[in-house]
Amino acid sequence: MAHSGRADGEPGDIARLLARDEDAWRALHEREFQVLYRFARGMGADEHLAEDCASEAFIRLLRELPKRRLDTERSIRAWLLVVCRNYLRDQFRRSHGAPAPLDAAHAASESVEIDPHTRLALESALAPLPETQREVLVMRFMLGMTTQQVAHASGRGVKAVESLQHRALAALRRSSVLRKEDR
Amino acid sequence: MNERPQQSIEEALAGLAAPAAEVERYRHRSWYKLQSALRAPAPARRWQLPVWRPLALASAVAVAAIAFFALQSPRAVVAAVHGEVIATVGEQRLTLRPGDALPVGASITTPANGWVALRVGADRMSVDVSSTLILRELSRFPARVVTEQVTGRTWHVPAHDPGRVYAVRTDSGEAIARGTAFLVVTLPGTPVEVMTVEGTVQVDAPAGSALVSAGQLVRLGAAPPVVEDSPSTRLDTAAGASLIDQLGRSCEAGSAEMPGCLASGNGFVMLPNVATDLRIKIEVTSAGTVKIDVDGQRTEVSVPGEGTFEIKLNLRRSGTELEVEIEGGAERVEDDEDDTDETAEPSDTPEPSDTPEPSETPDADENDDEDGDEDGETPEPSETPGADENEDDEDADEDEGDAEDRDDDEDATEAPRPSETPDLNDDEDSSGGREGEDGASDEDDEDADETPKPSSTPRPSPTGTAKPSATPQATKTPEPSDTPEPSKTPEPDETPDPDDTPKPEEAPDPDDD
């Protein structure tokens, strides 16, 4: 699933957000919640944690928007993702120290059909990946963001994102779980 | 195949994304949370101090502080003081100590045996014995230092700054410095004199103005001021030598500065008859001779070996004639002696022939003060018996005959001046109130007790300086009015040579000169 995301911000929308216009916030929430939720889920959060993560990011945006120079939709999304990632990191650190594998029972994307065994193997292969590599894979393939969008959202360079993506995919290919699945 | 095609992994990853139904379900819950936060009253915007505001505030405070100190009147700071020098600030009278800061309006009065050196920024001024100076203006913007000299003698070395005003006012006129060193003398009954050692002084008087250059003097009176030559004395000697007057002041830009004297190269330039009884202090590394050149009169004094030596020197100028007398040879002194010590050193003890004449004793001044007789002359520093304060008792004991005279002199020095010391019986007050000097005076007291003199004047008496046979009043307790008539005192320029000083047996007749 692809998220185009407007590159240019709309000053009118930002002004309405600053004025705490409910419609503007609703539109923003509808557009960005799925990104945050799926990002959290892709990073290993369960539904509740993913929902908390997204909600926390929005509420924090509501509080911080007047103080920050978030004048484009892209910068808002990047900021929300950073908040969500940090929130998850804190939660994982408090709970058990590592992101959990994806909840296969609830993970059922309607856009791409994959068999349950492959899903399970892929989820198991994702779990041991470093957070940075997993984050790139989630943004690139689960959220459908371009390399540049990932670079902007994660605060890294495009080359660094491409490198992380390359190493993450290579790691998945080397994964014994997936090889076993192939056989 | 061993490896799954990359496209397959990417597609599989996309398939792992949370389904839309699940997202929608939790989106509503999230929206409710956000909506309640939106509907909650917006938190009052906390006033946050931007980073630049504290900086601006600190800068403003710093600027204000600098402006405050810059606009605040500078103060005259006491660099050195000797004797009981009184400063009157409004209703307050205080005895000056080094480091005291005097504001505008302070009136400084020195006793017959005391002086004070002041600093106003880079300006130096010394108020000599028996003088009164009032600080009239002290300001930085505009830069002005104006003093009023009531009486006595003051020495001024203002900083070289053409954009500022440094002036000394007197009853007869005003001396405005133009980056120079000059002496102002206002003695009762004589015209105000302004003598310049260095640079030029502009003198403005009601009768006219004049520029007084180095080596000149001007007398201010009813007539227009006429500039006269005032040949200063140049004394050259070995490098590193110090020239010290009878009160322990040095001819150097230090805390205790000898009025009318400036260090110049390896020598010194002095105004005539300002300081007459001097000491040259010099440190030598081997036996040899010290060459002394006073206005071309060359003398050599031999020194026996390594160490610090002092050579006593008496200078008397009468008109164009200068008489130079070297007293004895070089005397070895302790290396750690402080040249600028406020107390006179034992070597200052006057020889019997130097015993001040009755007219030179402070009594004459007291008489002047009390009688208001303006004919009296304030004794010059070299004549002031203040240097006798710390006379060495051992030396005094060596010669009983001399000791008698000296004790009398000490009493004279310690005797409180009625106009300055309310408690006549207070010996401590009479010695200036300093610990060291108090100690000295105590010793003197003991010495005086050990050697009672039939004719010695009781200590509290303000006129105890008179020698028994030198003054007609010596055999009775002298009253202030019993002191010799100040009109008989010699003029400063007519100071008799020490050798000409009448012996105690002789009747004092200062007019013999």
Summarize the structure.
The complex is a heterodimer of chains A (183) and B (513). Chain A is mainly alpha-helical.
Please, could you describe this protein's structure?
The complex is a heterodimer of chains A (183) and B (513). Chain A is mainly α and 183 residues long. Chain A has one domain (11-182): PhyR, sigma-like (SL) domain (Butyryl-CoA Dehydrogenase, subunit A, domain 3), CATH 1.20.140.160. Chain A has helices at 11-18, 22-42, 47-64, 73-95, 116-126, 131-142, 147-154, 158-174, 176-182. Chain B has 513 residues and is an alpha+beta fold. Chain B has three domains: 70-229, Jelly Rolls, CATH 2.60.120; 233-345, no CATH class; 352-512, no CATH class. Helices cover 20% and strands 31% of the residues of chain B. Chain B contains eight helices and 26 strands. In chain B, the strands form three sheets. Chain B has a 17-stranded mixed beta sheet that branches. In chain B, strands 20-21-18-23-24 form a five-stranded antiparallel beta sheet, with no helix packed on it. In chain B, a hairpin with a 2-residue loop joins strand 20 and strand 21 (267-270). The chains are: A mainly alpha (183), B alpha+beta (513).
Question: What's the layout of helices and strands?
Answer:
The complex is a heterodimer of chains A (183) and B (513).
Chain A: H1 11-18, H2 22-42, H3 47-64, H4 73-95, H5 116-126, H6 131-142, H7 147-154, H8 158-174, H9 176-182
Chain B: H1 6-15, H2 20-39, H3 52-71, E1 76-82, E2 86-89, E3 92-95, E4 101-102, E5 107-109, E6 115-120, E7 123-127, E8 132-139, E9 144-157, E10 165-169, E11 174-177, E12 181-186, E13 192-198, E14 200-205, E15 208-213, E16 216-220, E17 226-229, E18 233-236, E19 242-245, E20 261-264, E21 267-270, E22 277-284, E23 288-294, E24 297-303, E25 307-318, E26 321-333, H4 362-371, H5 393-398, H6 400-414, H7 427-430, H8 435-450
Parallel strand pairs in B: 9-10
Antiparallel strand pairs in B: 1-4, 1-6, 2-3, 2-5, 5-8, 6-7, 7-9, 8-9, 9-12, 10-11, 11-14, 12-13, 13-16, 14-15, 16-17, 18-21, 18-23, 19-22, 20-21, 22-25, 23-24, 25-26
Helix pairs in contact in B: 6-8
